[in-house]
């Protein structure tokens, strides 16, 4: 059923309603908890206020979509009662407080998106080993403390993990090698420190690995990613890492790269492994102490696709040739 405007308190009388799609304003009435047959709740517009605890009575619901509204307050602990819930998207609101640990015990939950809120505190450490979670997106919040080891080792179905733009601290624990289906990891823009765990490079189906803007240290041997044949996006910028590059005569390339950010990584030269990267869209090698002229092959990089190129704050002596006509940012 599709409504417009606000939701009256009388909506709770629709006890056999299964799908509720509303575009409007106002707050969710407490009577929403009386819709015991509801399976889908989809709100658009400018809803505000808090989510009533009575939402925990919707025991048949599978899909809740409350994205890009003006909701505030804490997430009700009663969300953990929704045993049939498979998708929960609350991104783009102003929710505050901590993540309810009860959510991570729901075994049928596949998609969680709480990005772009004001959530604080730690990520819950209790995770059900029978979880079906495939995608977890918590970026652009105020989450603190360490990334729980259970998040990296227990979730058997996890494919997408985005914890970027928080205030997470501590070391990154080892990723369990059985999680070979994990395809995208973004932990950028936090306060993580220590070395990059080698177990990351056993995740052979990774297409994206973004660790930029943390406080990680040590020497990173770029050859460690040589087994990641599906890798498209790599971000290691703005940290205390030094990259160890392969010698120019080695067979080592990533022809499928679309995004590469290695700013402030002490490269000292243009990496030769870029030579066959014909599909690059974004390349940042700024502040990397690169010296001398650009190699002739450089202007063949992403010739038909490159839109962002940053070579600033280096020691380049020649900038001849410029056929990259699709560039929008240089």
UniProtKB/TrEMBL annotation:
- InterPro entries cross-referenced by the UniProt entry: Leu-rich_rpt, LRR_dom_sf, LRR_R13L4/SHOC2-like, RLP23-like
Q: Where are the transmembrane segments?
A: none
Give one Pfam family. Answer: LRR_8
Instruction: Give the membrane topology, semicolon-separated if more than one.
Output: Single-pass type I membrane protein
Coiled-coil stretches:
none
- Give the subcellular location: Membrane
Report the main location listed first in the record: membrane
Disease resistance R13L4/SHOC-2-like LRR domain sequence ranges? 7-168
Judging by the UniProt lineage, the source's domain of life is Eukaryota
Sorted alphabetically, the keyword list is: Glycoprotein, Leucine-rich repeat, Membrane, Receptor, Repeat, Signal, Transmembrane, Transmembrane helix
Q: Name one GO cellular component term.
A: membrane
Q: Which family does it belong to?
A: Belongs to the RLP family.
Q: Under which name does UniProt file this protein? A: Disease resistance R13L4/SHOC-2-like LRR domain-containing protein
Per the UniProt entry, what species is this protein from, by scientific name?
Answer: Gossypium schwendimanii (Cotton)
């Amino acid at each position: 059923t599709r409504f417009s405007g606000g939701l009256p308190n009388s909506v709770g009388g629709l006890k056999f309603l299964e799908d509720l799609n509303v575009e409007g304003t106002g707050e969710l009435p407490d009577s929403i908890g009386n819709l015991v047959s509801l399976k889908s709740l989809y709100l658009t517009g400018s809803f505000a206020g808090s989510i009533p605890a009575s939402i925990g009575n919707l025991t048949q619901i599978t899909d809740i979509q409350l994205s890009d509204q003006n909701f505030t307050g804490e997430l009700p602990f009663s969300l953990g009662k929704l045993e049939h819930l498979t998708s929960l998207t609350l991104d783009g609101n102003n929710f505050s407080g901590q993540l309810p640990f009860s959510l991570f015990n729901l075994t049928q939950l596949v998609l969680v998106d709480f990005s772009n809120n004001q959530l604080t505190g730690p990520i819950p450490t209790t995770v059900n080993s029978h979880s079906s979670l495939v995608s977890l997106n918590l970026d652009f919040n105020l989450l603190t403390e360490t990334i729980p080891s259970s998040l990296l080792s227990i979730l058997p179905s996890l494919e997408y993990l985005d914890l970027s733009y928080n205030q997470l601290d501590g070391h990154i624990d080892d990723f369990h090698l059985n999680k070979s289906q994990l395809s995208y990891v973004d932990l950028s823009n936090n306060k993580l420190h220590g070395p990059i765990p080698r177990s990351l490079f056993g995740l052979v189906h990774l297409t994206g690995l973004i660790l930029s803007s943390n406080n990680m240290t040590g020497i990173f041997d770029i050859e460690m990613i040589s087994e990641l044949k599906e890798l498209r996006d790599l971000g290691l910028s703005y940290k205390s890492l030094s990259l160890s590059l392969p010698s120019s005569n080695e067979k080592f390339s990533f022809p499928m790269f679309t995004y590469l950010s290695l700013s402030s990584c002490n490269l000292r030269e243009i990496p030769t492994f870029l030579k066959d990267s014909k599909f690059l869209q974004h390349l940042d090698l700024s502040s990397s102490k690169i010296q001398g002229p650009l190699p002739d092959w450089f202007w063949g990089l992403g010739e038909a696709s490159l839109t962002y190129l940053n070579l600033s704050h280096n020691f380049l002596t020649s900038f001849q040739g410029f056929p990259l006509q699709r560039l929008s940012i240089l």
